[in-house]
Amino acid sequence: MERLAGRLALVALLALGLAIAVGAAGGPSRRLTPSSEAGFPAWFAGPLAELAPGRLVEVAFWLLLLAMGACYLAVLGLARCAGARWVVGATVGLHLVFALAPPLLSTDAFGYLAVARAVARAGASPYAPLAETLARDPVLPLLVWEARPNPYGPLFTAATVPLAWLGIAGGLWAVKALAAATSLALVALVARTARGLGRDPVAATAFVGLNPLLLVWAVGGAHNDALLMLLVVGTLALLAAGRERLGGAAVAGAIAVKASVAVLAPILVLGARRRLPALAGLAAGLLAAGAVALAVLGPAVAGFPASLTDQAALRSPNSTLHLLGQALGCGGATPALRAAGAAVLAVSLIVLYVRVARGADPIAAAGWATVATLVTTTWLMPWYVVWVLPLAALAPGRALRGAALALCAFVALMRAPLPLG
Predict the structure, then answer these.
(1) 122 neighbors 161 (Cβ within 8 angstroms)
(2) What is 47-108 written as a DSSP string?
(3) Cα–Cα distance between 367 and 373 in angstroms, integer?
(4) Fewer beta carbons under 10 A from the terminal one: N or C of the chain?
C-alpha cells in the first residue's frame, strides 16, 4: 500500500508540474512570465504552447504550486517505498517539463543574455548598468533590472559570452537547457555523495530533485543557483575523497560565480582533513578564475566590487528583516535592523567556524551558515533556497532538513497573492 501511495504521489507531482508548465505557455502573464510584457512570440512560449488550452491565471498557479508542495511532502515520506527508479524517473521528467516551459517568475535568463551581449560589444563593461551599454538593444525590453549593474561573479560573467552568438531566442533556450542540466547534475552528485556518506541516496534525490521551488524557480526560471551548488557539493565530495587541492579550487570557482558563497569557504577549508592543501587550492583557484576573467573581460572586471555594493543595498519586501521591521512598526528593514542582522550573521558564522575547527560536521555547518545568511539578508529570492537544499539532504539528523523546508514554505508564502495585511 505504501509503495502504491508513493508512486501515486510521484505521478501527481509530475502531472501538477506539467499543468504549470503548459499553462504558463498558454499566454502572457505579468507575474508568471514577466518578460512576456514585451510580447509573447512562439520562440518565447516554447514547445509546450501547442498543448496549452489557455493562459494560466495567477491564482491557479499558486493552487497548483500548493498541491505540488503537498505531493512533495508525501513523496519525502514514501520515497523509499516508491522505489529508486520511480523517484529518478519523476525527477528527470519534471526537469524536462520545466526546461521546456517559458521563463517563469523572473527575467534573469534574459539578464544573462544581456550581460553576454554587453561583453561582446567592444569597449562595453559587463558591470555597467545594461541600459547604458545596450541602448536600443532588443533584449532590454525583456528585462526588469536594466538600470542596475550585473551582480554575478567574473568567472560566470566570462562564461556567458558564447550566449551572445546565439541570438535572443537561441540564447534563452540554451540557458534553460543549461539550468536543467546543471540541476540534474547536482541531484546526481548529491545522490552519489549521500551513498558515500552512508545516507539514503533515494531520499536525498527526492529531497533535492523533486523540490517544487527548485523546479519552478531554478529550472523554470533558468537561474544559475544549481550551478553554484554543483560546485559547492563538488567541493564536499572532493574533500571527502582526500582531494583537498581540487576541493579548494572548486569552492573558488563557486565564489567566482556568486560571491555570497564566500561565507562557506572557511567551513570547507577548516573541515578538510588536510587544511593547508585545501587553502592552497582555494588560493590557486581564485587566481586562476581571476586570470580567466581578466583575459575575457579585460579591465572591466574591476567593476565587480561596485556591483556587489549595489546588490548589498537592495531590499525585498519578503525578507525576514523587512517583516520584522513591519512588526515593530518601523515600516521595514531599517539601518539599525540591517546592522543587527549583520551582527547576528557574523556571530553565527564565527561560532560555526570554531565548531568546524574543533571537528564538527562541515556539511551541517555549511547548511546552517546558509540558513543564517538567508534569514539575515535583506534581499531574499525564492530560488535562493536551492543553496540549502543539497546541504540539508547530506547533513546528519533532521534539523537542517526541517529548516530548509521551513524556508521553502516561507519564501513561497511571501510570494503568494494572499491578504496578509
Answers:
(1) no
(2) GGGGG-SSPPPHHHHHHHHHHHHHHHHHHHHHHHHH-HHHHHHHHHHHHHHHHHSPPPS-SH
(3) 10
(4) C
